[in-house]
Specification:
298 residues, Arc Repressor Mutant, subunit A, D-Maltodextrin-Binding Protein, domain 2, alpha/beta, 10-stranded mixed β-sheet
Length: 298
């Protein structure tokens, strides 16, 4: 697939060269050169610029509509050729938010590859907001996220539920409790994920449901990864809220303690698709495998 079209669609989706450059992992000048090459080819402007924000011209809207169709037709071509050859081949690019991407999907993908060794899989792990950006820009085929989606052109489908727990040092004063109350969160230093994280979204929603907010917490640190948070909790810096799956190994090793909440604190992991995209045969095969997987093994 022509990289220029993917870059173009990313700029169109984000309405920003700066934001697009972060998504496609190119410098902003490189993104500008890709757009400039398309404008020179079509001999017309594709974007109007107002400060840092850009919007599609009439020609740009026409190209965007056709570009999304081209990406969909490409997937159909791959599917047809796979039928002719009788071999399940192709490539799947998926994205996942931190918990699933780091602690669940690697095992699932390994088992899937044993059945379909010729399907190439690329997994990108990021927070929920970035996964949705990558999907709408055409850099991943679908995503699995733990936070709410923010765009109308996104289709969603519940996958599985996950329990969030309070993660503390084994010698913490709360370590002997079987369950803790949400009010316990206001009495000790807390380590939080960054804005845009699905875990952070659910924590804020949980607090709000019980008449609290972030300002009621003693926030010791804000960190951009689950692994960094676990290390900080292990060092005694504070408490954190994480998925039970994310801390399974450390709890088994005795390095961390996970305590459930008295109040219900679960969330759903959600499959997300762009309404404009057509999933390939390989995409659908992996999706079916993920949906039917026995998550009790984790």
């Amino acid at each position: 697939m022509d990289i220029k079209l993917k870059v173009f669609c990313t700029v169109a989706e984000t309405e920003s060269f700066t934001r697009a450059s972060k998504i496609v992992h190119l410098s902003q000048p490189a993104v500008s050169l890709q757009i400039q090459a398309l404008e020179e080819f079509f001999e017309t402007k594709l974007f109007d610029k107002t400060g840092k924000q850009v919007s599609l011209t009439a020609a740009g809207r026409t190209l965007y509509d056709h570009a999304t169709h081209i990406m969909g037709h490409y997937n159909e071509v791959v599917k047809e050729i796979n039928k002719l050859t009788g071999t399940m081949k192709g490539a799947v690019a998926l994205g996942a938010s931190t918990t699933l991407g780091n602690y669940i999907l690697p095992q699932i993908i390994t088992e899937f590859k044993k059945i379909h060794p010729k399907i190439k899989i690329k997994l990108r792990v990021a927070n929920t907001e970035r996964i949705e950006d990558l999907m709408h820009a055409g850099f991943i085929d679908f995503g699995i996220v733990e936070g709410k989606t923010s765009r109308k052109n996104t289709k969603t489908e519940k996958l599985i539920s996950d329990q969030l727990v309070l993660v503390i040092h084994p010698k913490h004063t709360l370590a002997k409790k079987r369950a803790v109350s949400v009010l316990e969160l206001t009495r000790e230093p807390m380590i939080l994920r960054e804005q845009g994280s699905g875990t952070r979204q659910h924590m804020e929603k949980f607090l709000d449901a019980h008449g609290l907010n972030i300002n009621d917490l003693h926030v010791a640190l804000i960190m951009g990864s689950t692994e960094a948070i676990k290390s900080s909790v292990e060092a005694g810096t504070g408490m954190a809220i994480l998925s039970r799956w994310a801390v399974k190994k450390e709890v088994e090793d005795g390095r961390l303690k996970a305590v459930r909440f008295k109040e219900d604190f679960t969330r759903d992991f959600t499959l997300i698709y762009s309404k404009k995209s057509l999933l390939s045969h390989a995409d659908k095969e992996l999706l079916l495998f993920i949906k039917n997987y026995s998550y009790d093994t984790f």
